[in-house]
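SUBJECT: protein chain
CONTENTS: sequence, structure tokens:
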Amino acid sequence: MPQYSQNVSEQVMKSDKLGSGLPWGLLIFSSFVFVLSVLAYFGLHVGYANYLNSQISLKEQAISQLTSKVTPEAQNTFATFYSRLANYKNLSAAHIYTDKIFPMLEGITNPSVYYNNFDLDISNQKLVLSGLASNYEALGQQLYQFDRDPNNPNNKNPMITGYILNQSRVVDGLVNFQVTLTLSSKLFTK
């Protein structure tokens, strides 16, 4: 049987002495961090807040000096100008532009077709066209052109969302027709 030079109670006391410093060290470190954060808080609250308040008051004084340099008459003139400018912006944003319709029609109209009546209903975004085509083949080509993009015939026309052929009949060797185009809202904006 092996013999031990120390008994069990002495071994427990030695191991207890080794670990007893860790909680105290952790407490001291935590206390140091707490005191440091409290000092930083009060330093920011007292010192930096006063600095920011003094900067704010300096800027307010500079603004009041600038305001005193501008006469009330000039302020009223500027306010009137700004009001007119804002009203113009609102009016122009809601303005409906129809200047794209004729170039669009010119680009997609078949040479064998001409229009003799043009009725635009902006509120419903409808355009009723009446016209004459040399024959039904020309009318069919024209209807196809309403559906195709003039810049890229493989794509749908972005300005015309749909069309309806209201009527067609032969009169004096020409096809008299009426078609209703449903126009895209993009056609009425700048």
In short: The chain has two domains: 1-69, 101-188. The first strand starts at residue 113 and ends at 121. Helices lie at 8-19, 21-69, 72-94, 101-108, 136-147. Residues 1-69 form one domain.
